[in-house]
Design a protein that fits this description.
alpha+beta; Glutamine Phosphoribosylpyrophosphate, subunit 1, domain 1; six-stranded antiparallel β-sheet
């Protein structure tokens, strides 16, 4: 079972990697109707699980600040930190925590549909699947995963948690916030 959720808000992208470590990955973020984010993302980033060999990343565009923590892997590996890809006039950015267990079959299906797939990254498959199926993309995935997809042109955030990777969220005072651990939303 998966739990997708869309959120749409309005206001140059910035991605920052912070060395630190994570024992397990994690996702968190928020979208503010007020525009520019405050420093709240720093507290969220510090609250993500950490350990050796991990990278924490921050993606910020307009009122959205989206976080990811995960293993430091080459982008052509299973991948996880925010990756952006342009599709026509749209640029989508995504991160995933977990793995798509059916990545091989999904990759072949999308290639047969004419999509160019450049890496073995699950996050690239996620982006292409989102272009192909929109909010129905998770119906084509198997595994335990959570992800976010940011569509900057439409100012739309799509989040989904499945299996043992749930996402929790709150909406208050014009701010939508989410995290893989509900305790992080109390920061």
């Amino acid at each position: 079972m998966f739990f997708p959720f869309f959120v749409r808000f309005a206001p140059a992208a910035h991605i920052m990697d912070t060395e630190g470590g994570l024992q397990m990955g994690g996702l968190a973020g928020y979208v503010s109707a007020r525009g520019a984010p405050d420093s709240g993302w720093e507290r969220l980033l510090q609250a993500l699980p950490h350990g050796d060999g991990m990278v924490r990343s921050v993606f910020s565009e307009g009122g959205a600040t989206l976080l990811h923590s995960g293993a430091a892997r080459a982008e052509n590996g299973r991948g996880g930190w925010p990756v952006s890809r342009r599709f026509g006039e749209r640029t989508l950015t995504a991160a995933i925590d977990g793995a798509l267990q059916n990545a091989g079959a999904l990759r072949e299906h999308l290639r047969r549909k004419g999509y160019a797939i450049h890496t073995r990254s699950d996050v690239e498959l996620l982006l292409i699947s989102y272009i192909e199926w929109g909010a129905a993309a998770p119906e084509h995935f198997s595994g335990d995963f959570a992800f976010w997809v940011w569509d900057g042109a439409q100012r739309k955030l799509f989040i989904c948690g499945a299996g043992d990777k749930p996402l929790y969220f709150v909406f208050t005072e014009g701010v939508f916030a989410f995290a893989g651990d509900p305790a992080m939303l109390k920061i």
